[in-house]
Design brief:
BirA Bifunctional Protein, domain 2, 37% helix, Rossmann fold, globular, 8-stranded mixed beta sheet, 586 residues
RNA sequence: GCUGCUGUGGCUCAAUGGCAGAGCAUCUCACUCGUAAUGAGAAGGUUGUCAGUUCGAUUCUGACCAGCAGCUCCA
């Protein structure tokens, strides 16, 4: 407990959580003072700050939040002591019933019969809570707290239950820290890929197709460059590539299990009286390719990649820029192997992931998702497969956290969550172990013994969805993509129209050398051209004027503002080539 | 899908129950300029859609669509 170790600093995570937890109670107290009819549900501290869920007869607005904040500051000034006391369950229940707090009663009802329930009292306000808490509301710095949002949340996370009002807050020991936090949030908003995507002309979304992104010319360059790299890496790791149809008949989806387990998210249609579904996943098509010819153990592990366009009908409220769409390209691959090869293949796949992510300077955390309620296959099979995943990852010296019951319906998986430069994480890569689909599709290979055997397989994506990955790196780089990825790598800017022909010749030469180059020959001042190219995040600007024509040079400026001076075009080309080839992040 | 909010030229945003405005971008003209915005002019909008109230609706009401925040969901 914070009081005991006397670590009154946010460096101490326990203290930080306790601080925020107490803030949440102060917030609840403030709300009850202002609107006694509000029913309290639950108010934990979270990774950043806290929230409190409550049932109010109206929806909170930003104006309400200001009122609540003011009341919270008052409570802090009052320096109310937090006193802990305990009651047996039955008394605790009656206590909350008398106070007219139905959600608290429900919480108590879920505790064991013989439980003793702790409460914290601060002034006139008492709340059910396990603690710990600060010893006084006076410990909270009133001017360094802020209520950041009010929103809806389901009671107990259940969409069939009451919709409650949730208020989020954040607080720090000092006002500077609050200001720094708020500044960081502002910075995050500037990096939002939806904003940058529009500004940089990467992609767009239209009312005519909610969740179906359009890629614009510059976004397409990004996507294709990414895919070129992807193909290069996968070739190195021994993958072959296939492409399977977007639409296949119902029978196939019934066989794969998708019709039963995933139908609500699938787009279906009827053609010549036969049900068809647009693929939400690539695997059944991949199964058909494997099954189309006999295989030998000598071919295994057989690594088959597919950049597959999938469609999934996600709930309208879940859509979010490129992070959550209804149609996207998966950089999918299925690796067919013998049971003996499983661990090696998983480890090889993780090495491939490491190689790809490091190119972008992205770090990740791993989650192991285990057997869900709705699954196919036996429990023994699941446990065996989960163990293999654990063993493979542990042997590589990597940490993981377990995400209970979140596996795919056909098998357990390792999910790779990428952190962007602001520390937010997005699931991108996944490695899913599957012995069910080979069974359902009766896949076989001929073993050394001349007998037919059933292979096992993994489904895996590195980038995840190309769309999501583009969103992640857009935010990660704040739109300033490394030169090898930048849609436009060089902008040749003229000082006067006397340099037009020279600029065109420079651009032509760069284009011939394989670079993506644009010219800015507009009748504008050089300052304006520099400004606009910088805002477009073009890595290099080549300024050319009379002096450069005379000396046969280009004056090089990096988007960071650094002036690299005049050099020959050959020198610049060599420099850029080195930067592109090394995929340097700059 | 749920709760709340939002929707005005290509973009960012004003304003109003009585002829809809600015900046940027676009086009034209002048300026020919050395590292983050040269000046002037022109053109551009049935205010998301459909109903309703009203003498009159972009403004008020309702439904729908889309977006935003969060929840739920997420192979």
């Amino acid at each position: 407990m914070a009081e005991e170790n006397n670590q009154y600093t946010f460096e101490n995570e326990q203290y930080r959580k306790t601080y925020w937890h107490t803030c949440s109670h102060v917030m609840a107290q403030a709300v009850k003072r202002l609107w006694p009819e509000v029913k309290l549900a639950i108010g934990p501290s979270i990774d950043e700050g806290w929230y409190y869920d409550m049932d109010a007869p109206f929806a909170f607005t930003p104006e309400h939040l200001e009122q609540i904040e003011a009341e919270m500051r008052k409570i802090c000034k009052e320096k109310l002591k937090l006193e802990r006391f305990e009651l047996p369950r039955a008394e605790a229940r009656k206590f909350m019933e008398d106070k007219g707090e139905p959600f608290k009663v429900e919480l108590i009802d879920d505790l064991p019969e013989d439980a003793t329930i702790s409460f914290y009292k601060q002034g006139e306000f008492t709340d059910l809570c396990a603690g710990p808490h600060l010893d006084s509301t006076g410990r909270i710095k009133g001017n360094a707290l802020k209520l950041t949002a009010c929103n809806a949340a389901y009671w107990r996370g259940d969409s069939s239950r009451e919709t409650l009002q949730r208020i989020y807050g954040i607080a720090f020991p000092k006002k500077d820290e609050l200001d720094a936090y708020l500044a960081r949030i502002e910075e995050a908003k500037k990096r939002d890929h939806r904003k940058l995507g529009k500004e940089l002309g990467l992609f767009m979304l239209r009312d005519e197709g909610p969740g179906f992104p359009f890629f614009l010319p510059k976004g397409m360059v990004l996507k294709n460059t990414l895919l070129d790299y992807w193909r290069q890496v996968h070739k190195k790791y021994g993958y072959v590539e296939i492409s399977t149809p977007i639409m296949l008949n119902r029978q196939l989806w019934e066989r794969s299990g998708h019709w039963d387990h995933y139908k609500d998210n699938m787009y279906t249609t009827v053609i010549d009286d036969v049900d068809f579904a647009i693929k939400p996943m690539n695997c059944p098509g991949g199964m058909l390719v494997y099954a189309s010819e006999p295989h030998s153990y000598k071919e295994l592990p057989l690594r088959v990649g597919e950049i597959g366009l999938v469609h999934r009908h996600e709930l309208s409220g879940a859509l979010h820029g490129l992070f959550r769409v209804r149609c996207f390209n998966q950089d999918d691959a299925h690796v067919f192997m013998t049971r003996d090869q499983m661990q090696d293949v998983i480890q090889e796949t993780v090495r491939l992931f490491d190689e790809v992510y490091s190119v972008f300077g992205l770090s990740y955390t791993i989650e192991l998702s285990t057997m869900p309620e709705d699954h196919i296959g036996t429990v023994e099979e699941w446990e065996k497969n989960q163990d293999i995943l654990k063993k493979a990852i542990t042997a590589m010296g990597k940490d993981f956290v377990i995400n209970e019951g979140d596996g795919a319906f056909y098998g357990p998986k390792l999910d790779f969550h990428l952190a962007d430069s602001l520390g937010r994480t997005w699931q991108c890569g996944t490695i899913q172990l599957d012995s069910q689909l080979p069974e359902r599709f009766e896949l076989e290979y001929t073993g050394e013994d001349g007998q037919k055997h059933r292979p096992v397989m993994i489904h895996r994506v590195v980038l995840g969805s190309i769309e999501r990955f583009i969103g992640v790196i857009t935010e990660h780089f704040a739109g300033a993509f490394p030169a090898w990825l930048a849609p436009v790598q060089v902008k040749v800017c003229t000082i006067t129209d006397r340099a037009d022909n020279y600029a065109k010749a420079v651009a032509k030469e760069l284009d011939a050398a394989g670079f993506r180059v644009e010219t800015d020959l507009r009748n504008e001042k050089i300052g304006k051209k520099i400004r606009e190219a910088t805002m477009e995040k073009v890595p290099y600007m080549l300024v050319v004027g009379d002096r450069d024509i005379e000396n046969k040079t280009v004056s090089v400026r990096h988007r960071s503002g650094e002036d690299l001076g005049a050099m020959s075009l050959a020198d610049f080309t060599a420099k850029l080539k080195a930067e592109v080839d090394s995929k340097e992040i700059k």
